[in-house]
Structures are given as C-alpha cells and as structure tokens.
Amino acid sequence: MNWRLASRLSVITLALLVILIVAVLGLRNATGAPATDLNSTPATSSGLQGTDLGGVPAPAFSLHDQFGKLVTLSQFAGKPVVLTFMYTHCPDVCPIMAERIHSVMVSLGADAQRVAVVAISVDPRGDSVASALSFSQVHHMVNYWHFLVGTQDELAPVWTKYAIDSQPAAATVSMHTAILYVIDKQGRERALLDQDLTTAQMTGDLQALLKE
Smallest Cα–Cα separation from 187: which of 100, 136, 116? Predict the structure, then answer.
C-alpha cells in the first residue's frame, strides 16, 4: 500500500468516525437523554447548592467569640446562618475557607448584615479569645463572623452534634472535617458544602434563603 492510498484511507476513517459521533449525539437529543456536566454541583430539592440536609433543626450551642461575648445559635433566629469548623493555627484549609467566606460577605453587600457567620474551634488547646480575634483580623472577618472558642468539654459535644471529626495530636490538631453548614432563618439545616465549595455556590444559597 503506497502512502497516497494510506492517506486517503485515514481521511475516510476519520470522516466515518465524525459521522458516527454526530449520529450518537443526535440520538441522545432525540431521546431526551440528559447531558452530563462533570463540573456541576448537585442542588438540593429546594434548589440550594450542596448536599440536602432535610431541614432538620440545627443543634444548639453556647460558646464565646473573639470578643469574649457569649453566642448562641438561637440569637440568629430570622437570619440564614453559615456554620463552619476551623482552628486559628491551621496551615491550609482554614485560611482558604476564611478568605472565601469573606469574599461571599463582600459580594452580598448590604445583605451581609442579614446573614450570620459562625466558625467553631476544633482546637481547644491552641485557640483562645485572643488568637480568634487575631485570625479574624488577618482574614478581614472581625465584623462579619463569630469565631467561637472553648474548652475540650465545651467544644466536644458540639463537634459530636455536627458530626465533626477532630483528632487532636499532642499539641495541635492533626485533622478535622472541613465542611460548611447552611442553616435557614428558622434554624433548620438545609445544605452541606465541603472544602471545594465556590463563592458563587455559597452566595447563591444565602441569597435564596434571604428571599424565603
């Protein structure tokens, strides 16, 4: 077989392959088969981004924030609540999460005052009121959230209620669950976002809950 014939056969084969692909796509459209978007995030039944939590009541808590003030979940009745767990000396996930939450608050504009943000410590040894305030200042969240700290006895029951896996090492935290709860105005758990959340997803969820 000379090179001219081989070249022509290659062109014919490629053309047939293109025709086959077009035919398959046409069949999918004709039968109503859904297109798959590998980058999409599943929405809850109410349209929120994230894992649907079914609207169960969010567990109560009572802890002190970066100003030393007592904070409870019930005081945020009437506001959507963003609840996450982190620690002030975290080298990776926590600073990123804090920056994303800050971006969301900025994007909400005046509506940011109608949303409550709570971060609960997973490091009772390393976190204090002072370190919580410092972390909040570094990430421009002082006036946007409540960073709650406490003793092991105060924090552990909250971790359990929210299914947070915190494994303290001898002097610091070796691992913790990086997730974010979205709670509605009635104090019900609506959606769960993981560390791969985008600011657009969180902003969209909060805007939707503000309209409810």
Answer: 116
